[in-house]
Amino acid sequence: MIELAGIGPTPFCTMVLADLGADVLRVHRPDAPPEPWIDALGRGKHAFPLDLKADGGAATVLHLVERAHVLVEGFRPGVAERLGVGPEPCLERNPQLVYGRMTGWGQDGPYSGMAGHDIDYIALTGALAAIGKPPLNLVGDFGGGGLVLALGIVAALHAGVGQVVDAAMTDGSALLMTMTYGLFNAGLWTTEPGANLLDGGAPFYDVYETADGKHVAVGALEPQFYAELLRVLELDDPALADHRDRDAWPAIRAALGAAFRSRTRDDWEERFAGSSACVVPVLALDEAPQHPHNRARGTFVETPQGFVPAPAPRFSKTPPGRSKEWNPSDWGLSDDGTLAR
Q1: Active site includes 293?
Q2: What is the DSSP string of 32-72?
Q3: Which of 141, 166, 199, 206 is the catalytic position?
Q4: How far apart are CA 111 and CA 124, in angstroms?
Q5: Beta strands of the chain (E only): which ranges?
Q6: CB-based contacts of 308, cutoff 8 Å, min separation 6
Q7: Under DSSP, is residue 278 helix (H, G, I), strand (E, B) or coil?
Q8: 320, 311 contact by CB (below 8 A)
Q9: Taking the CA of residue 102 as centre, how many other CA atoms within 13 Å lie in the half-sphere pointing to its CB?
Q10: Cβ-contact 123, 129 below 8 angstroms
Q11: Residue 192 exposure: Cα atoms within 13 Å on the Cβ side
Q12: Residue 117 CB partners (closer than 8 Å, separation 6+)
């Protein structure tokens, strides 16, 4: 794979595929300043400094394309074409190439030429209104962007036909909202944020503060899980028994809030350990890598820069995360990384 270096969803897409065994050559500007947060997305890749705007820059990329199965770029529509590395010359050089394109709005449409960020893309699809306030850029950039593009690339490779994969964060974030639109169309979801089953409207699916100012997450959706929640909290008031009764939600919320404020977060974790009440601690970024479950699973790996999430998912026979040793000749390059003559 060739990655024409960008930020956000593009390097995340290629990182995921590198984790799964792809040999990724990251083509970046020679004068690009090092960014630790970008380096976290660069694992398993080989860096190749190249100025695409310089004489011979496009020709070098086209030379690399001859050896590649995939090229990924995250420029605005038309930029790759102006640089001379758009789909047409690349597919002419390698008809079997999968050309992955990552944008916010897509390659066409009234907004295609506009600037934007994750918050804008999810706003246009209804996701932001449903969530209620700006979330982390997981929905547009990484879930609806990078992961959708990675899946599209794998599907295109499986099809065995050289083609362009047009991944737009608006399209991908809309795709992630499929179930929510289904609930809305069935009359089971309203347009009011914080008033629905899965957005904090239900008292048995929410976050509660504990005695030490920390929090626990409660996801007791099913009746048996809710019953277990009440049992561990020692709440036996009959008025709280039916969690499907929306008229009882204010009383349930008040009772749960008072109960959770009576003990610390770690106390509650110990009391709920092994139960089916769906209650776990809300962990900060510096806590999550140290949690016993995450340590046992190897969910995070330690790097010189700190802990980062490990590759996922897990495979029984072909474990991810096995980076291929850099071999310039694989790409038609000399040992010093220049074009082989």
Answers
A1: no
A2: PPP-HHHHGGGTTEEEEE--TTSTTHHHHHHHHHTT-SEEE
A3: 141
A4: 11
A5: 2-4, 24-28, 45-49, 70-73, 98-103, 163-168, 205-209, 215-219, 279-281, 300-303, 306-309
A6: 40, 43, 300, 301
A7: coil
A8: yes
A9: 32
A10: yes
A11: 8
A12: 104, 137, 140
Record the tokens describing residue 50, joined without a space.
Answer: 């190249």
CB-side exposure of 136: number of CA atoms within 13 Å? 4
From the candidates 117, 237, 267, 330, which is the catalytic residue? 117
Q: Order across the sheet with 70-73: list the strands.
A: 45-49, 24-28, 2-4, 70-73, 98-103, 163-168
pLDDT tens for each residue of 92-123: 999 999 999 999 999 999 999 999 999 999 99
Contacts of 334 (CB under 8 A, 6+ apart): 328, 340, 341
Quote the CA–CA distance of 310 and 298 in Å, as a whole number: 7
Phi, psi of 90 (to 5 degrees): -70, -45
Q: % helix / strand / coil in the chain, to the nearest 5?
A: 40, 15, 45
Sheet holding 215-219, edge to edge: 205-209, 215-219, 279-281
Phi first, then psi: give them for residue 101, nearest 5 degrees: -120, 130
Burial degree of 58 (CB within 10 A; 0-12, 13-18, 19+): buried
Specify the pTM.
Answer: 0.93
Low-confidence ranges of the chain (pLDDT < 70): 33-38, 321-324, 336-338, 340-341
Note the pLDDT tens digit of each residue in 74-93. 999 999 999 999 999 999 99
Distance between the two ends of the chain, CA-based, in angstroms? 22
How does DSSP classify residue 167?
E
Rounded to an integer, what distance in angstroms lies between the CA atom of residue 232 and that of residue 235?
8
How many CB atoms are located within 10 Å of the residue 95 CB? Answer: 10
Q: Quick one: tokens of 28?
A: 């970046």
23 is catalytic: no
Q: Taking a C-beta distance cutoff of 8 angstroms, is the pair 76, 100 a contact?
A: no
